[in-house]
Design a protein that fits this description.
By secondary structure, the protein is α/β, with parallel strands linked by helices. It is built from eight helices and nine strands. The strands form three sheets. The chain has a four-stranded antiparallel beta sheet with strand order 7-1-8-9. Helix 2 packs across helix 8 and helix 3 packs parallel to helix 7.
Length: 234
């Protein structure tokens, strides 16, 4: 594994790795220590008190961040007739049915999110092995399998983030860009945390949120006191 560069190592000396910062301190530190020449993403990682191997603890959901993510999402809607027209009016980048499925099977992937009406899912299933590993497969829990295609498109364009607990029991999500500043990153964080907390399974034992860290695209993680996440038992 390659070692981190000089800049990363310099920045890490400014972070107390043994400390759990308050949320405001963590955001300030992350923004102050970013060093890349581009507008880095600010990301959150939550270590959850979950066993992802259990179906009832495989937490998955979505949230529209108040200030978006700072990234433009290209949306493909797989629908026909009136629903296709609704998708177009809502600002979908691509709309199709059988033709879109065939293009994807031929290697076309110039989109970031896929929305499908329920009646098209038997067809979408043909490309599950292509979309699934890329995190693009439509899913009812994230609102991307729906007849309300216009709302789905608008939510994605407004900054909707999908999240799920991974095999290691961690939930990752983007919170915006360094250029957003303290207040917007904080408001996005709280919206994300609230969405995660609302999905706490009844079978979850002990602390639901065990650890929290913020980081930029290129920078090291800054630990946040889990007690800052409302409702955590930590």
């Amino acid at each position: 594994m390659a070692s981190h560069g000089k800049k990363y190592r310099e920045v890490k000396t400014k972070i107390d790795t043994g400390k759990k910062y308050s949320l405001d301190e963590a955001i300030t530190t992350v923004i102050a220590t970013h060093y890349a020449k581009f507008d880095e993403s600010v990301d959150v990682a939550m270590v959850m008190g979950l066993d992802p191997r259990k179906a009832d603890q495989n937490v998955r959901g979505s949230v529209v961040l108040p200030h978006g993510t700072g990234r433009t999402q290209r949306v493909l809607v797989i629908a026909k007739g009136e629903k296709a027209r609704e998708a177009e009016e809502a600002g979908a980048d691509y709309i199709g049915a059988e033709d879109a499925i065939e293009r994807i099977q031929s290697g076309w992937l110039e989109f970031d999110k896929v929305v499908s009406t329920p009646d098209m899912m038997s067809m979408v299933g043909r490309i599950g092995k292509i979309l699934g590993p890329r995190g693009m497969m439509p899913n009812a829990k994230t609102g991307t399998i729906t007849f309300e295609v216009a709302r789905a498109v608008r939510d994605i364009k407004a900054g909707k983030v999908d999240f799920r607990v991974d095999r290691g029991g961690v939930i990752h999500a983007p919170l915006g860009r360094v250029s957003f500043g303290q207040d917007k990153i904080r408001e996005n964080f709280m919206a994300f945390a609230d969405a995660v907390l609302r999905l706490k399974p009844a079978t979850s034992k002990g602390a639901y949120v065990r650890g929290v860290a913020l980081s930029t695209t290129m920078g090291p993680g800054v630990k946040v006191d889990p007690a800052e996440v409302r409702g955590s038992a930590a």
